[in-house]
Amino acid sequence: MFRRADTKHRSVLCAVLVCIFSFICVFQMLAMSQAAYSFDFRRDVASKFFWTKAYKEKHPEPTNNMPKTVEEYYQEVNKAADKAREIPSPKFEKDEKLVDLPDPSILVVKYNDPPGKVEINLNDLKKKRKINSIGVVSPQFDRLVYSTVYYYPSTKTASSELYLMQLDKGKSVQNRIEEAHVNHGRKVLYRTEMDSLDLDIQKTLTVVDWSVDGKRLAFKEKISYTPEGLWKTNLFVYDFETGKIKELSEVRDAILYYWRTNYNIRFRDYRWDIYPVGWDAANPDRIIVFAYAATGENPKFLGAWSIDYKGNRAMLLSPVSTHFDVTQNGSCLKSEYRN
Asked: Strands (DSSP E) along 136-270, which ranges?
């Protein structure tokens, strides 16, 4: 009798132990699954109750707009800078020391007046590191050309670039010039070469004038060496019909040949240069150039010369006279005080 009771109690105890072990296993499995499958309110609850299609349309998921590459980053930065950049209007400050000074008036005037005398003011170049020339407008008032001179203090050198801007023909002539800005787009027509490692070399670009039909632009490159002054002036013509630039070096060759063959003077031993004046009024396809030799206080006149824009023929107009008519085709803005 007692043996049967012990056997019965042992069976009950074994059953209890099996239940406890099973519960422990199930609890461990639930804990492991809970670790692998974390609770998500939006997935487990919200999506089943109020995360409806209409709610999703009103509350879209945030998108990642961060740039993926460095190039994309700089592109976005440039776009943001362009949007934030304001287009300034021309401003002329009043001198407070003057009494009853009237506000300046902005006028559209002829550019090449007097002929061949317009130069870039480089007095503040070393301080500002960048100087812009006067903007010269074509005779048809649809294009504007100007140059920028850059200064590099480490080498004491300067380079220059010539830019073209298209003007808005839907505005008045003065407004289209005043409101022209680099943010509206510009194109590089020419840049000076900086292939020399010498110090103190400055190269600047200056507009001479537009042709009367607005199809060509004459400009000059002045190369100077700070300790010695101006070295050389090169004459160029940009042809807008072909999109090509022609250096009119033939006029310099003609001057050297004339003085060598007629007077046995070789200018390799002397300092001399050319001064482009403008487009010939008698022949609109040619440019008039004066030449001088440095001979102390009074430079020696080497003649008035003419060359066509293609560089096919250079000829001497006069060895002594400078009285030749030059057209003034380009226009620019000028401020004047009126009483």
From this structure: 136-137, 143-152, 157-166, 187-191, 201-210, 216-225, 229-239, 244-247
Residue in this structure with the two tokens 């649809």, named with its chain if needed: 142
Task: Answer for the pair 192, 205: CB distance below 8 angstroms, yes or no.
Answer: yes
Q: For 153-196, write each residue's pLDDT tens digit.
A: 888 889 999 999 999 999 999 999 988 888 788 999 999 987 66
What span, in angstroms and rounded, lies between the C-alpha atoms of 334 and 328?
15
Name the residue range of residue 189's domain: 104-337
Give the helix, strand, coil percentages of the chain, each rounded to 5. 30, 35, 40
Provide the domain count of the chain. Answer: 1
Cis geometry, peptide bond prior to residue 227 (ω within 30 degrees of 0): no
| Within-domain flag for 2 | no
- Is residue 162 in some structural domain? yes
Q: Distances in Å between the alpha carbon of 206 and those of 117, 145, 161?
A: 11, 10, 10
Please state, in angstroms and rounded to a whole number, the distance separating the CA atoms of residues 100 and 238.
46
Task: Determine, yes or no, domain membership for 28.
Answer: no
Q: Band the pLDDT of 60: cuts 50, 70, 90.
A: confident
| CB of 304 closer than 8 Å to CB of 292 | no
pLDDT in tens, 3-46: 444 565 666 666 667 677 666 665 556 555 554 445 555 555 55
What number of CA atoms fall less than 13 Å from residue 258's CA on the CB side? 17
The closest alpha carbon to 310, from 239, 241, 254, 257, belongs to 239
Backbone angles phi, psi at 316, to 5 degrees: -85, 125
Residue 218 lies in a domain: yes
Single-letter amino acid, residue 165: M
DSSP character at residue 61:
P
